[in-house]
Automatic annotation (TrEMBL), chain A:
Region (Disordered): 28-74, 261-295, 367-423
Domain (Cyclin-like) ranges: 93-175
Gene Ontology BP term (one): regulation of transcription by RNA polymerase II
Name used for this protein in its record: Cyclin-like protein
Biased composition (Polar residues): 43-65
Composition bias type Low complexity, residue spans: 269-283
Nuclease found in the keyword field: no
Protein keywords: Cyclin
Pfam families linked to this entry: Cyclin_C_2
Organism of derivation: Lasiosphaeris hirsuta
The organism's place on the tree of life at top rank: Eukaryota
Protein family per UniProt: Belongs to the cyclin family. Cyclin C subfamily.
InterPro entries: Cyclin-like_dom, Cyclin-like_sf, Cyclin/Ssn8, Cyclin_C_2
Molecular function via GO: cyclin-dependent protein serine/threonine kinase regulator activity
Automatic annotation (TrEMBL), chain B:
Main location: nucleus
Pfam families: MAT1 (PF06391), zf-C3HC4_5 (PF17121)
SUPFAM superfamilies reported for this sequence: RING/U-box
Species this chain originates from: Lasiosphaeris hirsuta
Gene Ontology CC: one annotated term: transcription factor TFIIK complex
Protein name per the record: RNA polymerase II transcription factor B subunit 3
Annotated keywords: Kinase, Metal-binding, Nucleus, Transferase, Zinc, Zinc-finger
Native organism taxonomy: Eukaryota, Fungi, Dikarya, Ascomycota, Pezizomycotina
Cellular compartment(s): Nucleus
An individual GO BP term: nucleotide-excision repair
Amino acid sequence: MAAEDSRYRESSQFRQWSFSPAQLASMRDKANTLARTSIADRLSTSPPNNAGTNPMSAPTSSANTPDPDGGTPSLPEFLTPAEEALLVTFYTSELLRAGDHAEMGDEIKATAATFFRRFYVTNSIMTYPPQQMLIVALFFGCKAEGAFPRITDFAHTFGKEDPQDILAGEFLLCQGIRFCFDVKHPFRALRGAMMELRKLGDIDASRIDSAERRARDILRFSPLVTDAYFHYTPSQTMYAALSHADRGLVERLIQETFHYVAPPTNSGPDTPTASSDTSTLAASRRDTNKGDDGNKAAIIGAYIRDKVLGTIEACRDMLAKEMPERREHWSNKTVIKAQIAPLRKKLNKCHDPDRWDLVKLQKVRREQALKKSDSEDGEPGDRVASSEGDASLFGGDLATAQRDAKRRKVGAKGLDDPFGGAL
Amino acid sequence: MAPGTASGAALPLTTDDMCPVCKTIRYLNKDMEFLINPECYHSMCSNCVNRLFNDGPNQCPYAGCNRTLRRKGFRSAFFGDLIVEREVDIRRRVAAVFNQAEDDFETLRDYNNYLQMVEDLTFDLVSGTEGKRHAAEAQLQQWEAEHKADIERNRKAGREADEQARRRLTAEREAARQRRIEAIKEAEDEKLERARSREAELDTLAQAPEGQRVQLKRRGQTSRAGGAAVSAVETAVNTAVATADVGRLSIRGLKEKRKAPMPEGPYDPFGGSDFVPSRYKISEGLAHPQIEKYRFDQQHITGGYSFDGYTARAMFEAFAGLGVFIEDEKEVGIGMSTGQVATIGAGIATVGDRMELD
């Protein structure tokens, strides 16, 4: 087992946020189904007396019913997982555009985009508003990468007056990404590959530079709007992007790395580089490796090389779907009007009424937490009186609605653990 | 319980002080002893026995008992209660005939059945009605006639077993006695030896030339010359005689000396994980133009930024995970299963979980 691989296997990105395509698809399906059932419950049991008073809830209840004061409204059409995926991609590119606008670094934007995508694997886009969550992801991505912006300045950059709009969704985001804040990116890997190529000595420097520029452009966009971070390791992603930029370089690198040919006799393996490194550990390791032919073949032998090349090819194909030129596609007005706007309309009808407004959601949850920590002798009347202002929005008695929502546990068990349940 | 009524007159205790036949009381005959005849278990004093039966067989003097008794049948009873005496006699007779051991039977059940049969027979003989008794007697006779050889064999085996047991007991007692004698003898010898060696030491002290350093021995340590023999005796003595000898250095009952545990290497904080790269080598030639400009930037150099660290990290990230094939590994189900993550995420969505207050 290669030392680098085993170290990568320890990372949370591998352990918790790497999936096979089938697994990822099933997770998204599951999130979609669960959201559907819970939203259907909420919509069907929301009391009918809100219909006439509130314009915001009017679309939810009157979508298909001719009679707003009538009985339970029929359910709106929900988003399919494919549509959800499209929306997530669109909003990710919006996020990157916003990041560019705010002149954030590559790694910050990439981290934010990854957070955003991960969040919408475990949650459905119908549950939480993506427009707000992408700002939250940007803010939290800044913090995760070590740049700590002031919330007021940050809010101004994005035209939000109230910092609460952003802070309300922060903990939600953390829960959604299961508190895995360390995202490993391919940018430094690209630097490392370039260093290695330069060390080889017989490649044109300008060729290396242009390849790096192009690869970096690709890495800033393509892996983030596809699922590459879920299915491939950062180094594989980097090689795939580099192969788009300059295929020959990738092949050269792979050849140099996976050079090992098992010797027919028992003489030691031939390593191309002499011991120019300073560590004595490597020297001793060479001695022990003399008998480790099988191990070396597993790490840098021919079989692994072919497998790695195959993986890089697969990643390359995935990246090819969303090359940087597609940025214009995602910000194109006509495309948006044709594809995204109908989905947005649909989303407006079928989103989760209790959770769409993050600030209100946070307030409600805080109140609940306070009520719970207080003694049980709080009268229901008090609760209703205190949240009278919010009652209209949620249609009726807030307390009872929330309590009913809590009682309607769909499928999953109640989670008292703020970290969201056992792994 | 009055089983004796069926067989005739009640059997009185023979420790009575009056002979029921001649009405002599013990006061008149100090050494009066009572005899019984197993025929009818009637007791009478020896004077009566002599008077009545010396001249030949005669009828039992008890009223109502018509048995003809002979002088030689009389014996003294072992038990005070004649009913018990009678039963014991019967059992003795039965046991003489039915003397098979457990080993003679194939299964335990057979043996128990046999014992039950014997006990039934005995009960009939002891306390059965007239008819039953006769039948039992007949059965007894019949069995005896049939199994004469077996009975003889078993009797012999029983006698041999008794002999062996007796012999073993005597041997053990003898061995214990011998050991005690030896222990005492050794104690004596050791005392003599001590005294002798003390004398010898004093002699050497007395005869040693002036100025020679004399090495005093610790109490309990003996000279090397007689050490071997004496220590053997001492060990024997210590096992036999419990003396509290403080100077003794050897301890009995020590376990086998355990080997010292292998010395572990220095503590490895990484738990054996390897940091030597296997796909690349960190050499001096690694550089990047974007980084070079920082080599002269005071802000970086003054603080002691390590460019080697950046190089190592970049190289590591370029090659780490290259051999990790997620599709293969995650299909097996390493890590969280797909359903779990979605469930948890959707669960967070559907259920109102408590949000931490900021």
